[in-house]
Amino acid sequence: VPVIEVRNLSKRYGGTVAVDGLTFTVRPGQVTGFLGPNGAGKSTTMRMMLDLERPSGGQVLINGSRYRLLPGPLRQVGALLEAGAVHPGRSAYHHLLWLAQSNRIPTARVREVLELVGLADVARKRVKGFSLGMGQRLGIAAALLGDPPVLLFDEPVNGLDPEGVRWIRNLMKGLAAEGRTVFVSSHLMSEMALTAERLIVIGRGRLLADTTVGGFIEAY
Ligand code: ADP
Ligand code: ADP
């Protein structure tokens, strides 16, 4: 049973075709990788999956219906996007507290996710002073806050040290093992080979392959 269905999805920006008729599904219980070079259309696709951007054509269904970014969305779909908006003067704790309150998530959950991502000790520090890795951990804490069954991660390991990369990789595998639907983008095949079971490969906004990681390595 696919949880996410992308159907003939397209996005044009003026003369640029960012996403060009993509069709694929994402299933629960495994990590599905979204592989393609920079500029291939991965972020644009993920923003449309989250209803942050309107498709030029086609649609995205999550659990059979169109996902709408309404109050409470963090309980259905959690996401780590590139350049996630965090007020730099806020502490990690206050950022998550604000997200919890605006999504009607119990505030006790804030402490739990801070522990989970290893930020409990710096929760009172301003986000302004955070390293890239700490910022990624905070973004992941926000994605996990509502305990959502569906998780989208856009280039989560970009700019991280090996320890951070391994941590995120194991986290994604653990979330999938719990039965969640995990969809993660990367421009690195080496990273996808270590993280994902299934692969959706795109280039210039078009589907190039929809296969297992093993099948992709054999074919290319
Ligand atoms: P990826 O995430 O795979 O690197 P993107 O989805 O960011 O790719 O970009 C796909 C294409 O769409 C690129 O050519 C990019 O320049 C273009 N693009 C993305 N967002 C915008 C935007 N807001 N306005 C104009 N062009 C955009
Ligand atoms: P404020 O900074 O708004 O005054 P408080 O320090 O009074 O907030 O804490 C408000 C609530 O948040 C309390 O229930 C407290 O236990 C909890 N809390 C405080 N610090 C943290 C933290 N680092 N992580 C998670 N919860 C915390």
UniProtKB/TrEMBL annotation:
Name by which UniProt lists this protein: ABC-2 type transport system ATP-binding protein
Keyword Acyltransferase: no
Residue range from the parent sequence: 20 to 239 of 325
Source species, domain of life: Bacteria
GO molecular function, one term: ATP hydrolysis activity
Keywords: ATP-binding, Nucleotide-binding, Transport
Family under the similarity heading: Belongs to the ABC transporter superfamily.
Residues annotated as domain ABC transporter: 4-220
